[in-house]
Specification:
single chain; 193 residues; alpha+beta; four-stranded antiparallel beta sheet; Secreted protein
C-alpha cells in the first residue's frame, strides 16, 4: 500500500516535529512551558493565565543584571544559559518595588503583528551583539506564540513574578550581549554554557 501525504499533512507533521522538539528543549532547560499554571514559590500577581519560569538549581543569589523600569518595576536576570538545542534561556524575576500596583505596558510585547495577536508577553525583548552587529529576537513556536512568559497584566506592590525568555543562541564565541526590554533600561549580560 502506497502512502501519500497532502501538502497540508506534510506541513502538519513538520510543525508537530518542531513543536515536540521545542517542547523537549524547553522542558530540558527548566524554562517552563505554556501550560504551567502557577510558579513555584509565593509570587502572586494579577494575571490571566500565562506561562511561568521554573527556578533553576544553582542560581546565584546575585543577579547577572538588573534593569530598572517604570512604576517601581525591576527585572533581575538570574541566569542566561546557552542550551544544546541552539538557543539561550534567560530566567529573571520581575519585582514591583513601588507603592502601587503596576500595570505592564503593552510595549513589552513588541510591535510585531504575529506576537501581538497572542496577547501580553515579553516578546519585545532582544539580545544585541554589538561586536557582530546582530540583534536576536524572542523565539516563536510554529503558531507564532513567543517563547516567553505570557499573560502577566500587572504586578502588585511588593510582589515578584518569575519570567523566562528564549532566544536563538549567538555563535559560541559570543558570551557578552546587551539585554533590551521596552520601557526598561538595557544592561550588559554574560551568557554561560
Amino acid at each position: 500500500m502506497s502512502m501519500r501525504f497532502t501538502a497540508k499533512a506534510r506541513r502538519g507533521m513538520v510543525a508537530m516535529t518542531i513543536a515536540v522538539g521545542l517542547a523537549v528543549g524547553v522542558a530540558g532547560c527548566g524554562g517552563g512551558d505554556t501550560d504551567d499554571k502557577k510558579p513555584d514559590g509565593s509570587a502572586s500577581a494579577s494575571r490571566k493565565g500565562g506561562s511561568q519560569a521554573s527556578p533553576q538549581e544553582g542560581q546565584s543569589a546575585e543577579p547577572l543584571a538588573e534593569l530598572r523600569g517604570p512604576d517601581g518595576l525591576t527585572l533581575k536576570i538570574t541566569s542566561a544559559q546557552r542550551d544544546p538545542g541552539g538557543f539561550v534561556t534567560i530566567n529573571a524575576q520581575l519585582k514591583n518595588d513601588g507603592s502601587k500596583d503596576a500595570v505592564l505596558s503593552s510595549q513589552l510585547t513588541g510591535n510585531e503583528t504575529e506576537i501581538m495577536k497572542n496577547g501580553q508577553s515579553f516578546g519585545g525583548a532582544t539580545l544585541v551583539d554589538s561586536k557582530a552587529k546582530k540583534r536576536y529576537y524572542v523565539l516563536r513556536d510554529t503558531d507564532g506564540r513567543p517563547l516567553t512568559t505570557t499573560g502577566v497584566q500587572s504586578v502588585r506592590a511588593g510582589d515578584t513574578v518569575p519570567v523566562f525568555l528564549q532566544f536563538p543562541a549567538p555563535p559560541t564565541g559570543t558570551t557578552e550581549v546587551s539585554f533590551q526590554l521596552p520601557t526598561f533600561a538595557s544592561a550588559p549580560l554574560q551568557i554561560s554554557g
